[in-house]
Specification:
327 residues, Jelly Rolls, nine-stranded antiparallel sheet, seven-stranded antiparallel sheet, 1 helix, 4% helix, elongated
Amino acid sequence: MRIMFQTMFVLLLCSTGLHAQNYLYQEQFSGGEADNEWHAGFNGNAMLPVNYPGNPSGDRWVGKLDNHFSGGNVGQSWSGSPEMTNYYYEAQVYIPVDGAVYYGLEFRVDTTGLTSGYQFVARFRPGGMLTPRLRFRLRPDDNPAIPQTIRDWEAGEIPGGIPQVSGWHKLAVLARGHEFWFWFNDQLLPGCPVLDYSRVSGAIGAYLWDDVSPLMSMYIDDINVTSDPLVSVAHTPPLPDAPVLHQNHPNPFSGTTVVSYELPAPSWMTLVVYSAEGRRLAVLHEGMQDAGIHRTTWNPGDRPSGMYMLRLTTPGGVRQRNIMHIR
């Protein structure tokens, strides 16, 4: 029942249109002045308005965030109320393909100390150990300098693929309870909602980081935060042509991991966990399910660390994923 409700909720979000908007926060940097107070976080610099011809709104004013050597080449600035809980946050972000490692949004930001919170960041620079991707991650309260990855979207899961030219891109996130939906250029990313239980409230912010240079800048514009999602029917994710079994997240994992999959049509299916030796260990689901996105969880309990296998079996075929458990 919970899985069916989540699927129906995604479809409801994608058909709400632009009505019933309740703005909690807006920032346009119009006229060269910030509409709200921006604070420096993580030993960095605060957001400042600058003139930028050709910005998305056409008014030539945007926010600029610089990274800083004393903050480990991080630029992080926050604004708004730390008491905000469930909200939709969207912004236009200029993302170079040859720039810093990460550019993006922060949300549910704990504004105390060095700050901590969730991030939705983009890396489009090729090369290095990490391929270009979009990433949902957490800067935890106890160690905000070491973010923890929650979910990645690589080229095959990003509508239109990885941009090859620097430009403005719209990033958006809906945080509701422990469920999170993410959009890139108004396209809902697969596997949503993503589950995480770390934070329930906090301010919004922007984030920039590079592994080498403390001389990077990030540009952001048209920031809107509402209590209702600003999405339209055009955002409804299409059904896949064949069953899809997504990589679990987090992976590797200790404790519980989330497994999501998509069905092109109503069908009988089984989702089973096997040991590396092929021994059947757990049945996560067996029976009829509707078309669309579904998710469940698995906790291996006291089973040893090692590689396990997920197997999704439907009339449309068999899909498998290797997963790594670390105790």
